[in-house]
Amino acid sequence: MRSLLRGPATRLYETLLEWELSGTPDHIAVIQDGNRRYARKQGAETTDGHREGAETTEAVLDWCAQLDIEELTLYAFSTENFNRPPEEREALFDLLEEKLREFADADRVHESGVRIRAIGEIDRLPERVQDAVAYADRRTRSYDQFHLNVALAYGGRAELLGAASDIARDVRDGEIDPAAVDVETIENRLYDGPTRDVDLIIRTGGDERTSNFLPWHANGNEAAVYFCAPYWPEFRKVDLLRAIRTYESRAQSWRKTRVQRALALVRAIESERGDGGRILRRLRDRLPREQADALCEQADIERPAD
């Protein structure tokens, strides 16, 4: 069914979008929303929506490989999902167990060097799901070509609170000097999973919120966010490419703003002290060469020699 919907016009649009992209983010995180609403729209059981969503997940893994994306984090089961009806939870747990083992044994996972890890309060999950998590970890532990993080029983606030509690305990016990607490101290106490900050967060299903997902790894407000209407089972490669285009536009805007701020600084100093050249030498070490050249040209100051 999915392949029938991908007609010549869609393939042409995909090609155009790929041609327009100058690069891709290293790490994408996805909130896979809308499986249940998709099932209701189709007049199907909730479990059918989750199963079709799992097919989308497999397709996204293929698209990431095609686009040279290095890390993908999927919000598969949040701490709030424990509030769902017992029969729905059990069906989700069955599907998670099945797919974790299936991915861990898949030839393409081993051929592509995919490292699979779960992040979250794994001990809250049924034993059969915990066993599947451990199995996937063992089977892929030696790989590092691509990182697939599956957020299970995950909540961003709980993660940060756990890290803060651990640090407070170590400070109380005299194992850490409070003045020595830094970014690395916190990161060492977060769930073992993401290897880098998130560049792009995608949420399907129409809601425009990030739902307590990876607040630390989203690096403040530096991660681009793309909200789209399709439910997760309807998500297509075109949607992924549009999201990446949004990420690129945001990155370009950020770089432009950075140059403009630096330019204002250089002009002010040149006006007051005639010292713009010296400031540019310092900026040159912090900005890409093309940005430093643009600064010199716009400020009408001769670029300092290398």
Automatic annotation (TrEMBL):
Q: Which cofactor does it need?
A: Mg(2+)
Family the UniProt entry places it in: Belongs to the UPP synthase family.
Please give the InterPro entries that the UniProt record associates with this protein. Answer: UPP_synth-like, UPP_synth-like_CS, UPP_synth-like_sf
User: Is Magnesium set as a keyword in this record?
Assistant: yes
The protein's name? Tritrans,polycis-undecaprenyl-diphosphate synthase (geranylgeranyl-diphosphate specific)
Q: Name one GO molecular function term.
A: ditrans,polycis-polyprenyl diphosphate synthase [(2E,6E)-farnesyl diphosphate specific] activity
Q: Which reaction does it catalyse?
A: geranylgeranyl diphosphate + 7 isopentenyl diphosphate = tri-trans,hepta-cis-undecaprenyl diphosphate + 7 diphosphate
* Active site, renumbered: 33, 81 (proton acceptor)
**Where does the chain bind Mg(2+)?**
33, 222
Q: What is the species listed in this Swiss-Prot or TrEMBL entry?
A: Halapricum desulfuricans
Cofactor binding: number and manner: Binds 2 magnesium ions per subunit.
Provide one Gene Ontology biological process annotation: polyprenol biosynthetic process
Q: Per the UniProt record, which EC number(s) apply here? A: 2.5.1.89
Name the gene. uppS2
Q: Which domain of life is it from?
A: Archaea
Subunit comment: Homodimer.
